[in-house]
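Provenance and format

Records in this collection were gathered into a single text stream. Each protein contributes a sequence line and a token line. The two records reproduced below are adjacent in the stream.
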Amino acid sequence: MDRLDNTIRPYAWGSPTAIPHLLGTEPTGEPQAEMWMGAHPGAPSRTDRGTLVEVIDADPEKELGPAAVAKFGPRLPFLLKILAAGAPLSLQVHPDLEQAKEGYADEERRGIPVDAPHRNYKDANHKPELICALTEFDGLCGFRAPLEAAGLLDALGVDSLKPYVDLLHAHPEDAALREVLTAILTADPEKMSRTVAEAAAACTRLGGAYAPYADIAHHYPGGDPGVIAAMLLNHVRLQPGEALYLGAGVPHAYLNGLGVEIMANSDNVLRCGLTPKHVDVPELLRIVRFRPSDPGVLRPEASPDGEEVYETPIDEFRLSRYVLPEAGSAHDLTRATPQILLCTAGSVRAGEHDLSPGRSVFVPAGEKAEVSGTGTLFRATVVA
């Protein structure tokens, strides 16, 4: 079992205080957006044996187990994070596995450098993800019903939004959503800037259900069309312990809060707005699934041994948690697949390691993993 030393990424949208508060450290004054746990080459966790990439590369079958290597190859197929949003992240979607493979191969054939700002596909993998709230957590997830979105826009009383309202009354619903998102993202920038300014002022005045969009506009004051596109999506507020699963093609954005996030090990993101980065509208429209949907808030399903599992339809990751009420009770978490164990509250002992909030360990496949203490422990592994 290896104690992990993890990198904190200072993205501009990050909270300057949430991760330091969890870790019990002093804020630096700079944003601290994500703490990465895993073997992503961009910021692999460090151990006493080297980086986790080096540890796994030295003996994949020993570290990951034969079943995981046979199913996913000689790499850890997930990335675990603590995510601290102090401002809205970009509105985005992720491709499915086939789309990722096609898009990556196409950009490789065209010779687009992998670090080019207009590159869409950094790798050939999909990026399903799950966010579990540690604090109250706000996000956008999936399309509203078109008539509901039309009512929300219409009540703002902004004349330049009327064409979008009319489009949202068309049938079928998927065509209506596609047409209005296309119109928003391809609108004249000067006209859109004025529309966003008027809509933002109306959201601030109305408050209530409009408050999240007023806050988004506050953080993106330059007339970003993503402010209007965001109003097509469901707003959801997670309570601690609740989670959202984001599958391929589902538009989403995290707005505010602290959570544990797990995802397939990929960097593939197509942005819809709320960003100064590249927005590839034709490719985005190919990837987005234009279906109204409920956000589908997940609550963990408890098993007799105390494990609470967040059920998802993919195998690259499996997230669960243990809420340990008594210091004397022990749980055997030994498993034939690789694991990362993360403490988020209290004090937990994992093997010979004492874990306080924000501290984590890597457990190789088949390694004895006994935990005890009083607190909350998240367990990340795979289905193999």
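Adjacent record:
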Amino acid sequence: MTSRLLMPVRTVRTARTEGAEASAREVPGSTRPTPILDLEHPLVTALVARVLRESEARGAVTDRARLQVAHGILVTAVRPVYSVEDRRRVSRTLRLGRGSCSQRMAVLEAVARSLGVETRVRGLLVDGTFWYPRFPKLRAFVPEEVLLAWPEFRLAGAAGTSTAGAGAAGTGAAGAAWVPIAELFTGLAPGGHGGGFTNAGAETLFEAVARTAVDWDAPAACAGSAPCDLSAHLRTDLGRFSSRDELFDLHGQTLCRPARTLAEPVLGRWSAGAAA
């Protein structure tokens, strides 16, 4: 019952080929600002200052610990909604005080880059049925596939653990490694606390990564029916990109522009978990 009518034209064969090529090579990240990650905006610099203050108060001295603090701040400061504008500037998300999972992940990337931590994203085409629990009465309007920019952070002293692609766990100087957002919070059991992520109710992916393991690749510890295994929902791995801007430049957003224009005034204010 998913729909392709509201989606941009995307050639699946081309996407798969490009994704395979991108996964096979090491993709650099960056700490530079981009049109989406507008690091120099006063709202972004104010957020970074708050992260540093709260990190100092909590004794969070590593980049991983500071990003965990930033994540906790964003959970409470930016209300989860179903906004469909993935290219929205981070500063606008902060000004509105609400954002989708993708938009809030972008804010976390902006904080990381401001702290000198390189970031990049992995492009994932996720089956639209994954969002059925959130829109039980609107399934006919759910896109056939959703483009997800899944952030990765280059952290010193970290061991890359993702299994997808040669570029996932590459280490460099000082033992730095790429860590997906789902692995920022270490020591989580596959089922987490209270079960795995179901994409239903008020909890979104952005909140879930701090509570339970989330994996799109079905590693041994999470394979099969384990709650953290989301691999069955992954249609195409598009590979890695130096920024989410680069990903959206090449593959577009989930919805075409006319659909986004019509949907954003409603979905951009619709709280995640509200009845559909």
